[in-house]
Amino acid sequence: MNRALVLSERIFDGTAELRDNKNTHRYVSSFLVLTFIVCLFLGQMIKWGWIPASHLSSEFSNPFFAIEFSFTLLLLLEILSLIFVLPGSVAKAVGKQFELLSLIFIRSGIKEFSHIKNTFETKPLSEELYAMFAYAFGALLIFVIMGFTYRVQKHIKLTNIEDDQTQFVRSKKLLAIILLAIFMSVGIYDIKNLIHTGTYLKSFNVFYNFLIFSDIIIVLIALRYTLNYYRIFRYSAFVLATILIRISLSAGMYYNVLIGVISAMFILLLTLAYNYFLKELKPTLDG
Prior knowledge:
There is one protein chain. Helices cover 77% and strands 0% of the residues. The protein is an all-alpha fold. The longest helix is centred in the middle third of the chain and has 36 residues, at 162-197. The relative contact order is 0.12.
């Protein structure tokens, strides 16, 4: 088991170093810009009849598909960031999940705008416009709540025994490698489905199911190193927060925003309570 943990740590550290490279950031940014431009031109060519009609036409012919697709790629990059944050700090990983949720709301608001037939027509507020406001302010509230959460967050080591802490971090790195493999598998499946059916699934919901399982595994691994009630409660509450995010992604309009904002408030209150009851412990660099 120790060999597997050491090997997974080497793979994770090497992959993380490649991801954090400045050249990688440049390539990714250039790819996103190129993808956006290609989608715009593809949509125009379909509209002009330069490309034969196909099952992809209805998607690409909408000019807002380029925005939605680019935002989807951006969200995929944020999910990658979430995977790489997990071994360092579970609290930061949960915060990253709410960052993702706020970006999903922003993307959903933009998508609602594409449903408005004539944006310059003077008429009573449509359902799409109400939805845009709900997503916009929901995303903003989560942004503000997580900002306060990060300010008051303290990262306490799970255990004061250095070897145990190292093993715990290595276990999370192994879990991150498994999540990375699952993430890539889900992405490949979505791309194949887009090519064959013309429908892009955007399987964030599926991946969040695996995040729930990974959070539960972390709680069970933590029991090996500590039985402290406050720490176990904190990790268990993180699992509940991930479940609430998953419910938010599947809930109907307005309910999804409400659940997301309340879940973010739950994490803020959890952080404040945890800091209060463990204020006698000296904050360290990990948690």
